[in-house]
Design goal:
7% of the residues lie in helices and 43% in strands. A hairpin with a 5-residue loop joins β6 and β7.
């Protein structure tokens, strides 16, 4: 019942859950009521997210933190690092530290966040977010598995099974669509120095170990079937009880598993039976299988006529012989940026397929390639269409950003493309700026040779990084010329490469950021490590070692990079010093002839404490407000800052991973409780 209720909340199509930009009176009332509920339940972080969401749409909600000031945007931000994100057609669930946050795709909270009570070792989620599974293990103790309703935390399955000596980690588990079983791969380093693996499947009966190195793909309801990748034989396998079926490909959905072998299709159902599935047309030896939302798309091997048959998973589960809902010309490809969509290529034309509509599929034409299309992929919110040696790059709506021919390419950012060509047997590289206007698609040569084998973009330093042999070289993305490090020394490998994930946003430590990174403001990308206030200006050192300055008018400025810095300290002259977490000084802030602060390298010197204000900050987030009684941060508000700072000026600053909160003596009572004096 609870799982169904959450699914209804997350997937409802009424005015509350629909993607509505404007706020009509009903919507305003809904957001106001939700905000009151979040504040009443002391889910302060979700309330801050909702306040930011509403403010961007013209609705000012009563601030949950009173007159406290917030540096950074709480929308799509979390107080601790993001561990995992699950996304549906109109919802997303974010696991951050010891909580689950439930959001719409536009960032608006749906319901209060769930306190997990601890930080699980691993977590899995079932279809439609109805169930979650947490896996824990105390040192040298048994593995503990718990499956519960996502909404109200009612436990539906609990199992403990013994751990083996030296078992140290497990991969992300997979949970059955109905939450009735979970499968996981556990690793251990044996006394013989070799790596050992085992799969453990947990259902209502108990734990069932399989002493094999298997990549777990999915598990069926009640563990009726198990889809795996056999590392030893390098093949996909479908396991039903004691039977093992080798497969060319396996795709799962709706509690069923579709496998292809030698051009034939078979469907494993929730009762553990395998039924043949009629081919919609000649498939060849290696048909393509792609899934999106509640849909399955089957395309034939490249030697057959290009066409795609669409099925609903739910209909196949009831009848494996059900005919396709629709057959269209062309081949389908997975869409990384949108789990509810697919790419479709028919000869030279390409389109997107919306698989989220209850009434059926919607196909939208996007453009035409110069030759027959071989493949479509996407990265950084850009669609890449490959047609032999030709390439077309466009925005999701079909707006063309570049077309040309090359031997190979790498999309470095949403607007920067690296292309590789060969001239007279020599490799050539060039950086191309993507733009709707062909006249603005500036190309710059990159001075690389055949030794370059790994090229990426480092957002921390805003440079292109090329690995030539074992050495890394840096290039300016605008000029294409090689550039030195900001701090002299041997160039380091890039440590900030935006990671892609399947979904509409990219996970960046404690934030979900747009795939088109260029469109984000400072406040929407802030990832904080330390803060201090000096001369009526606020200075924040970020997780990526930049120093930001915010003046009294709220204007943000990036003062530059101080590599390795995560802390703010001082020196004997009272200057602001950026230091490593160990306390080693990295650089110092000096005021230049232009009157602005600048970062300068400095030799390692003993750090000095910065002047502190009248708040007596102690250990374990304890403090005493000016003229007040000892207090302590109240964990009941749903989050904890990483550090408290009290620079001169009469305010207390709390540093979380994504925002900095500045409290007055009046507002601090909203997040604190009287401290017990020992």
């Amino acid at each position: 019942m609870a799982g169904g209720l959450l699914a209804a909340v997350l997937c409802s199509r009424d005015a509350y859950a629909a993607a509505v930009e404007g706020l009509d009176p009903d919507r305003r009332a809904q957001l106001t009521t939700l905000h009151e509920s979040l504040v009443h339940q002391r889910d302060i972080w979700s309330a801050l997210q909702l306040e930011s969401y509403a403010r961007k749409r013209g609705l000012e909600l009563p601030p949950a933190l009173g007159d406290a000031h917030i540096f950074g945007d709480p929308l799509f931000a979390f107080p601790m690092f993001i561990s995992r994100v699950w996304e549906g057609t109109n919802w997303q669930v974010v696991w951050s530290h010891d909580r689950l946050y439930f959001l719409r795709l536009d960032g608006c909270p749906l319901i209060r966040s769930r306190d997990l009570g601890r930080v699980p070792l691993r977590m899995a989620m079932s279809a439609f977010a109805a169930h979650i599974c947490t896996i824990d293990r105390k040192e040298h103790g048994p593995w503990s598995v718990s499956i519960s309703h996502t909404f109200d935390a009612t436990e539906t399955l609990h199992c403990e099974f013994p751990s083996l000596p030296d078992e140290d980690w497990l991969l992300d588990p997979t949970l059955a669509d109905d939450g009735s079983a979970v499968a996981m791969l556990i690793h251990r380093q044996g006394a013989d120095g070799k790596e050992h693996f085992r799969v453990v499947v947990v259902d209502a009966v108990g734990a069932h170990p399989i002493d094999e190195n298997l990549g777990v793909l999915r598990v069926g309801p009640g563990a009726a079937w198990l889809a795996v990748w056999n590392q030893k034989s390098a093949r996909s396998e479908l396991r039903l009880g004691s039977k093992t079926l080798p497969c060319a490909k396996i795709l799962c959905g709706g509690g069923t598993a579709l496998c292809s072998a030698d051009g034939r299709l078979g469907l494993a159902r929730g009762d553990g039976t395998l039924a043949p599935m009629p081919a919609p047309f000649p498939l060849g030896a290696n048909p393509q299988l792609v899934a999106s939302g509640g849909w399955l798309a089957i395309s034939p091997d490249h030697g057959e006529k290009a066409q795609t048959a669409f099925y609903r998973w739910a209909e196949l589960g009831a009848d494996p012989a059900a005919p396709p809902v629709r057959v269209v010309p062309g081949h389908c490809f997975e869409c990384l940026r949108d789990p509810g969509s697919l790419w479709l290529a028919d000869d030279r034309t390409f389109a997107s397929v919306d698989c989220t509509r209850p009434e059926g599929l919607r196909i939208a034409a996007l453009g035409t390639a110069p030759d027959a299309i071989n493949q479509i992929s996407d990265s950084f919110d850009r669609c890449l269409v490959y047609a032999n040696d030709a390439l077309v790059i466009c925005a999701p709506d079909g707006t063309e950003l570049w077309r040309g021919r090359c031997e190979g390419c790498t999309l470095l950012t949403g607007d920067l493309l690296l292309i590789h060509t060969v001239s007279a047997g020599k490799p050539l590289w060039a950086l191309v700026r993507l733009h709707p206007d062909p006249a603005q698609r500036i190309s710059r040569p990159l001075a690389l040779d055949a030794s370059a084998w790994q090229i990426t973009f480092d957002r921390t330093h805003d440079v292109v990084m090329a690995r030539c042999g074992e050495a890394w070289r840096r290039f300016d993305p605008l000029s294409g010329k090689e550039t030195a490090r900001s701090v002299p020394g041997v160039p380091l490998a890039p440590y900030d490469v935006a990671s892609e994930r399947k979904g509409r946003r990219i996970t960046d430590l404690a934030r979900l950021i747009p795939r088109d990174l260029a469109q984000t403001a400072f406040a929407e990308r802030l990832l904080a490590k330390d803060v201090y206030r000096m001369d009526d200006r606020t200075y924040i050192v970020t997780s990526y070692h930049h120093l930001l300055e915010i003046d009294g008018a709220g204007t943000w400025a990036d003062l530059g990079l101080s590599e390795g810095s995560t802390r703010l300290t001082g020196d004997v002259r009272g200057r602001l010093v950026l230091a490593e977490h160990t306390g080693k000084s990295v650089s110092v802030m000096d005021r230049g002839v232009d009157g602005r602060m600048h970062i300068s390298a400095m030799p390692d010197t003993p750090p000095h404490d910065l002047p502190e204000g009248s708040w007596q900050v102690g250990r374990e987030l304890a403090f005493t407000p000016p003229g007040g009684q000892p207090r302590r941060w109240d964990d009941a508000v749903g989050f904890r800052p990483n550090a408290l700072r009290c620079p001169p000026g009469g305010k207390l600053m709390a540093v979380t991973e994504a925002v900095v909160l500045e409290f007055t003596p009046a507002s601090i009572g909203l997040v604190s409780t009287p401290a017990v004096v020992q």
